Amino acid sequence: MVPAVRDRFGIPDVVVYTLGGSHASAGGFAALTDAHWQDEFALSPLVAVRLDRALLLAMRDTGRGAVVHVSFIQRRLPLPDAALGYAAAKAALAT
Question: What's the whole-model pTM score?
Answer without folding.
Answer: 0.78
